[in-house]
Request: fold
Amino acid sequence: MSINVKAMERDISFQKDQTKYAYVMTTTLYNTLKADKVIKEAALRSGVNQGVMQACWDAAGEVIKAWATEGHNVPIPGLGSMRFSVRARSVEDVNDVKTSLIKTRRVIFTPSQEVKNELAATSISITCFDRNGQLVKRVLSSDTGDVEDPEGGDNGGSPSTGSGTSGSENNGSQNNGSSSSSGSSGSSSVAAPTISGTTPFDDSTQVTISGPAGATIKYTTNGVAPTATYGNDYEEPITLNASATVKAVAIIDGVASEVATKAFVKNGSQGGSGEEGM
Reply:
């Protein structure tokens, strides 16, 4: 078994009348399994009646949702743990604290060490395609097998190869809806920008990006995560005429926020031109 990755040659230039090609790697997703298939397979492997397995599955799901809503970090047997959280803007004056500061609600899943070890031990197979879609090369894995901390955010959090989970996931303390941009002490101090726009859309859609006061914003639509030095400067709403995934960071004094990501899908298309990172 291996993780299958495709490397597509794409134009990543942001300069008019110029092109710059690079191979952008994304994981290949074949399909999404339905719950009944998983339940049937689990019943076969355990020798438990499928109806009993379905009942246990449903009951566990209800318990996990209820406890996560109450603020618990809930174990998911054999996989890890899950909790609810939020991303929110910060304010200096307590009188300005209100729920409108919350940008998104989040589900945070922290894999168990067993799952991390399985991921680290799985080889990677890369298939390379040129700008014309022609297969040009296949590459086998030679990476270090580091596993990213899920609390590290979208812009590449600290890799994790040791045991256990981050402190915020381990202590079992409640998270009673308090404002948090990441939940990790290693995350950026700059709040991530907010990407807005209609999706799915018919002919075109306008995308707006807003960030914290005093921040500059860089964005991409080619699947590559922007950084403090890479990306297109956001100055006015972006018009999309085709499906794309917009990624953006807010930058203050050279420090970039976590990467905000939003996929925009044109009706009748097969999905965004930039897949989320590996």
